[in-house]
Amino acid sequence: MTSPLKPGSARTVAVIGGGAVGVATASFLLREGHDVVLVERGGLGEGASFGNAGVLAPSSVVPMSMPGTLRKVPGYLVDPLGPLSIRWRYLPALAPWLARFVKSGTRERVQAQARALKPLLDDSFSAWLPLVRHAGNEALIRREGFLAVYRSEADFAGDALGYQLRRANDIPYEVLRGPELWAFEPAISRDYTIGALFRQCGHTINPNRLVRTVADAFQRDGGRLIQARALGFAVEGGRLRGIETDAGLIPAQAAVVACGAHSRPLAAGLGDEVPLDTERGYHVLIADPEALPARPILDASAKFVSTPMETGLRMAGTVEFAGLEAPPDWKRAAHLLTLGRRLFPGLAPHHPEARVSRWMGFRPSMPDSLPVIGRASACADVVYAFGHGHVGLASAARTGMAVADLIAGRPPALDLAPFAATRF
Ligand SMILES: Cc1cc2nc3c(=O)[nH]c(=O)nc-3n(C[C@H](O)[C@H](O)[C@H](O)COP(=O)(O)OP(=O)(O)OC[C@H]3O[C@@H](n4cnc5c(N)ncnc54)[C@H](O)[C@@H]3O)c2cc1C
Q1: CA 47 to centroid of ligand 1, rounded, Å
Q2: Angstrom distances, CA of residue 390 to CA of 26, 48, 248, 375, 424
Q3: Which of 15, 114, 120, 155 is the most exposed place for a label (fewest CB within 10 A)?
Q4: What is the pTM of this model?
Q5: For residue 21, which atom of ligand 1 is closest to its CA?
Q6: What is the pLDDT of residues 307-335, one digit of tens each?
Q7: Domains of the chain listed by start with CATH number
Q8: Is the CB of 398 inside a 6 Å radius of any atom of ligand 1?
Q9: 212: Cβ below 6 Å to ligand 1?
Q10: Which of 353, 275, 356 is nearest to 314 (CA)?
């Protein structure tokens, strides 16, 4: 944080949502001397923040919608192991979001998006570390790098613009080919012949425990936790009086909306119709795997990440457009297991059910791959912090620092203009 609070400027702040973003934000606000109440309707860190791939990657500045993405969609959709699926019944509801997604994928726009994401992701480690260190669990974060692997030079060349964006944003990487790649990461199949290694990246060995550990420290330090579902805001004369919840009014002078994919109705209540939808993702986790990489590996062709977790080997990924209500399609998770065995031939061809767990979660996704961080239109006491899509774990703590700046009335060290709720 840039400077301490002015005397007398501490407030009662309600942070709605106990995922990575909400818990990190609540922790930074508490450290500044505010009276902070975390409002969570379920379990802490059990939303999208539970089952993600755990990657903390400054290299993730490449947006999801890129020039040429649309051309690849039909191929993705017909491949049963492909990275994308759409429940056709959901298409009419999704259409406006998809139109914006396509529109945001021009060369000029992706350059601007990558530039905006860079400072949010660059500080993944320096922002998370004080929180985990204070919580006494620095070992939850490792910095062993992040490796993207390809089956052919043609696949690698297909991602050329992504690497151009990284170079333009000073994100270093090394290219490893053939024996050099296999020596560096012996667990992977020899069918993968080329890799890009991002040494400055890392991962957490348990995203859910990361969130819970930081939340425990928050409560030990005097932060309050209320289990309730936020329904709206009590605003009088433009100033916030409190949060309306299913457990009654929680008095607060400032609030943060950090409800991930569920943030849209709360923002709408404050006059901001944000195009937030969800890219549902899945994981499978093999406990006691026969093969384990030393660091997260992105299969860049199949678009999933395999991460060595403290609980086993997690394969996470896929994008499924089906909204917040449809039940999971566990075939998507089964496909990840098939793809994982293809990437790591040392894995057994079958695993007993008891050793494999499956999960589905809701990425909070904006069509331009940028989160919403900034003040609400109808009430400047409410700050948004949601919509982090594929990079919410990596950018959660840095987001929390920016929100603390806004609540304190300091100019944020980060340029928040690209993240405004009103940008569409
Ligand atoms: C398969 C997969 C892999 C991923 N891999 C990575 C990765 O490697 N690295 C990375 O950085 N990101 C990754 N992500 C993205 C990342 O998980 C999300 O961006 C991030 O977890 C979002 O955090 P959040 O706190 O905004 O949301 P969430 O973790 O979903 O938390 C929101 C919380 O708000 C609560 N809530 C909702 N509505 C209300 C309400 N009305 N009142 C009270 N509480 C409410 C929910 O119960 C929930 O606990 C991945 C996602 C998926 C699905």
Answers
A1: 5
A2: 21, 10, 34, 22, 20
A3: 155
A4: 0.97
A5: 25
A6: 999 999 999 999 999 999 999 999 999 99
A7: 12-49+209-275+369-423 (3.50.50.60), 59-106+138-202+278-365 (3.30.9.10)
A8: no
A9: no
A10: 356
